[in-house]
Amino acid sequence: LQNFWTFWVTSPPGKPKLTSCRSPEKETFTCWWEPGSDGGLPTTYALYYRKENSDAVYECPDYHTAGENSCFFNKNDTSIWVNYNITVVATNALGSNFSDPVDVDVVYIVQPHTPENVTVTVMEDKDGPFLRVSWEPPRKADTRSGWITLIYELRVKLEGEEEWEEHRAGQQKMFNIFSLRSGGMYLVQVRCKPDHGFWSEWSSTTYIKVPDYFPRETSVWILIAVFSAFIFFILTWILNLKSNSVKHCLLPPVPGPKIKGFDKQLLKNGRSEEVFSALVVPGFPPTTSSDCEDLLVEYLEVYTPEEQELILEEGKDLQEGCLKSKGSPSDSDSGRGSCDSHTLLMEKCGEGEGKEEKHQERAQKGKRQQKHQTGWEEGDVSHTREDVLSPDMSEGRVKTWPSVFSPLPQYSSRPLDHQGSLETARQLCLSDSLFPPPSTSSHLSYNAKEGLALGSGQQEFYLGKKQTHPSNPQSQPRWHLQAHSDFNISSMDRKQAASGLQLPGFRSTEYVEVQRVNQEDMVILQPLFSSSCQRDGHLQIGQGEDYSKVKGVDSGNMLLLQREVEVKREEEDGDRYSCDIQDRVTESCYTTSTAASSQVTGKPTSCAGTAMPVQEEMVLAANGYVDAATMLL
Amino acid sequence: MPENFRSVSAVWVGLVCLLFYSRLVRVGAAPICTNGQAGCHILSLADLFDRVIQHSARMHGISSDLHSEFEQYFFPSKNHIGRVNRICHTSTILTPNGKENAQRLAREELTEVILKLLVAWRDPLWHFQQSIAHHHDFNNFSSNKALEMSDMVHELRKGVEKVAEKMQMLGIISNSVNSLTSPEALIPSDRAEWRLMKDYVLLYCFRRDSNKVQNYLKILKCRIIPQHEC
């Protein structure tokens, strides 16, 4: 059937086409053509050629050597530098068809075979291994006689990569490849080209494996890395050793609050109620007198003409009677150190109070008095300082221990007249009525005599004093306790205030300290303010706990007083007090007052700095309190 | 300190210039000594051969460029060229058409053929370069190439003559090589269409002849100095 159809659709052959002619060595050449359609009939092809400038037509000498549809010209038929005009003819039964002629000059159609004997070897160098590739020209190309000049090209790539790396080798038959990857598998191929011609095919791939080696550059880097690590470790170790000092240097420790009963943890938790409730010491007001004994060792010996020894013991009643009422619960300590806290003072001195009710009672009283105090304080402010206003009036109280001193064991030699001391204590306690408001210049004189009889049993004098600021000491009201034989309690004298004695019904206790003894043998007491820490050397009143304690009266009619170091603050410049009362060095000053005849003289002792001359007979307690019997301004 | 910097840089520049100059002087082409004059840098025969072969290679490259340029712009259709009878004026010079034929020639004969070819092309190329420069049919690049080609033929001839002299001096070849007179050039025609055709044929012919020269020189070299890159 197919033949039937072809029979009907036969036609002359299609036009053949010469595809290419190539010479491998410039001595022979081959031409290939592409047959067109055969037209359904058996078609024969013939190649004819003409040489340059000649009309003679020759047919292809060899149709078979080069394969199908090819014509091979051997050496005898090949002329170099001669132009061939080649044509292919397709012929079938119906006709023939000529292809387009092609001009060929053998010189320009040279395409050699691939290079042969491609060998790759790994060679060693001081910089590392490298590849040496060597090859030979294709067998038929005669480069030895100079007939053909071949230039070579090779390409390399790592196994698995896509991109080849090509290198021109020129006419040399050997090439070196450097910068190899350690342990890599390389593929190498070579090809060649005559100086005027076509490139050959790539040779078959040669595989070569590079052995593992250690590049020199990496070793240097490793050395550097090891060295740096070593130094780093040494630095870390040193830093670790000196971590404390480094920490100190970078992050200086932040002073924390030194409030007794203050729990930082609670504050961090954020519950203020618990924090403040924790401040409330359960054992406060102290019910036992034992603590107070530790805190207060004050002796005030007052020598009377009758040789009445007033050794005031610290007793329960005494404590109660003379305890100041710190009653203000809302005593804010802002701006003050912990030493300034009234609470602390209360803690230390309030042991003798014993009963909480008393304390509370006093607290209430204290509250009541506050208004008075306020007025008094304000008046005080107007007189004394400009910026007096402190938020808490209660801090301005002058706390004077009326005469709460517990006899120390050392003083056992002293016969203590309890009863007498009690009375004396009472007497020493400054009653409210006796003391005028601070605004007025009031003199407080302490009358040691019975005439003192300041009032009913418990007399508490509350001198509402503003918390003193380190302002000019001159403006500070001075409280002098003038100790006469007849201890007159006069009004407190303030500098600019002159008013009559008015003793508000204070119930608070006051603290005075012996300031000095004037010429008339008067023990000048200085009120002791609750603010314990005196920032400035000048401020005396209210600066901390200046107080003098009457230690006792010795046989030589000496009034033994104990005084705090801070007493002489005015003489000291910027001395700082240790705010912690308990930490106070037993460096309290003490004054001994020699009682001459019927007078009690007191020698001021200077308490300078922290070093205190201590008399052996005097046991100096941390806190000394002197009953502000007589206050002189 | 700008003054210091300037002086230092001047010194540096001077040093660099001195270095370059010295290098140039050293690498510069030493004159080829005739009859072994003293003080010249005598080139070896191998070096001479290398020089002339490089020269001929360059010459052939330029001629190929010009030919393909000409063919591309002026004769796009190959059929048109095919009908033209390309008759080179050097066809009268007998040149070997194959390897065996070339190897069969003696060295002197081969040298003579080379020289004949080079001599034959001196005048036509000069004319060709003149016509290109005057008729503005080509761009500057082509006219420069034509000029260079013309000069190169001249230089190459001199170089080959030198090689022949050296060989004769060395006794490699006999003294039968003579300076040759150039054959008659093509008759110049002033007709426009012929002029273009003439130029094309000229370029075609010269490209082939320069290839012949290069090849013959290589054969000669590898026959005389086989160890040197053969």
UniProtKB/TrEMBL annotation, chain A:
Residues 348-364 have a biased composition (Basic and acidic residues). Residues 12-112, 114-213 form the Fibronectin type-III domain. GO terms for cellular component: external side of plasma membrane; receptor complex. Gene3D superfamilies: Immunoglobulins. Residues 325-341 have a biased composition (Low complexity). SMART domains: FN3. Keywords: Disulfide bond, Glycoprotein, Membrane, Metal-binding, Receptor, Repeat, Signal, Transmembrane, Transmembrane helix, Zinc. It is a single-pass type I membrane protein. Residues 321-385 are annotated as: Disordered. The chain crosses the membrane at residues 219-239. Signal peptide: none annotated. Belongs to the type I cytokine receptor family. Type 1 subfamily. This is a receptor for the anterior pituitary hormone prolactin. The WSXWS motif appears to be necessary for proper protein folding and thereby efficient intracellular transport and cell-surface receptor binding. This is Prolactin receptor.
